[in-house]
Structure formats: structure tokens, C-alpha cells
Design goal:
By secondary structure, the chain is mainly alpha-helical. It has a two-stranded antiparallel sheet with strand order 1-2.
Length: about 120
């Protein structure tokens, strides 16, 4: 089965939204679901960084917003991953023990790369 870049981007955006949605729920319930950037929980920022590109992708326009929000999340993921690796911060982990900032880094890297590929095709 062949999957195109549009569908793969859509799948990654949906998976990411669901994944970070669980962290946002935990944050709302306990106040301790994810690290803060200033006073704002990082998971809420990352949720918007999935939702805005999702809407832009579905509408097939607003590519600037797509790249602005995926780029912001990419930078957050880089900083969080480096801090996690150096032991200066603790990212939430999956049930398997993988830091979610590492997964965010991978997902947003793919989202940016796939969108560039998709736009070059048209």
C-alpha cells in the first residue's frame, strides 16, 4: 500500500494531537502533567502547534502558519531534548519510558520535511 505525503502528514498530526491531548488532560487535572515555559504548560503550547498545522493542512492553505507553528514546536522539542539529555530537565515519558520530547522532535522534524516535499511536488 502506497501512502502519499498528504496522508502521512495528516496521520502524524492526528497522532500528535491525541498524544499531547493526554498530557493536557493530566495537566488540567493535576497541574503536573508537563513542564512549564514561564507560566504556561509546554504541552498546551505543543497542542496548539499540532492543531493550527492540522487546520492549515486540511484547508490546504496557510502554509506560513503551518511552518510557524511546527517550527516553534520543533525549537521547543530541541531545547527540551537537549535539557533532558543533559539532565537539566525531565520530559514526560511514554509508558515504555521514552521521553516525549524526543518523540516530539522526531514528529515535528518529519512534519516539516514532509510538508516541504509535498509543496515541491506541486
Amino acid at each position: 500500500m502506497k501512502i502519499n505525503s498528504y496522508s502521512l502528514i495528516l496521520l502524524l498530526l492526528i497522532i500528535g494531537t491525541i498524544g499531547v491531548g493526554g498530557l493536557v488532560l493530566e495537566e488540567v487535572q493535576t497541574g503536573n502533567g508537563c513542564p512549564k515555559i514561564g507560566m504556561v504548560p509546554a504541552c498546551i503550547i505543543v497542542l496548539f502547534c499540532f492543531l493550527v498545522p492540522l487546520v492549515a493542512h486540511l484547508k490546504k492553505k496557510w502554509n506560513v502558519l503551518y511552518f510557524l507553528f511546527t517550527g516553534l514546536a520543533f525549537v521547543i522539542a530541541i531545547i527540551a531534548s537537549v535539557m533532558q539529555y543533559l539532565g537539566h530537565s525531565e520530559c514526560p515519558k511514554t509508558d515504555g519510558g521514552i521521553p516525549m520530547c524526543y518523540l516530539s522532535f522526531a514528529i515535528f522534524s518529519l512534519l516539516i520535511t514532509l510538508k516541504i516535499i509535498q509543496l515541491k511536488k506541486y
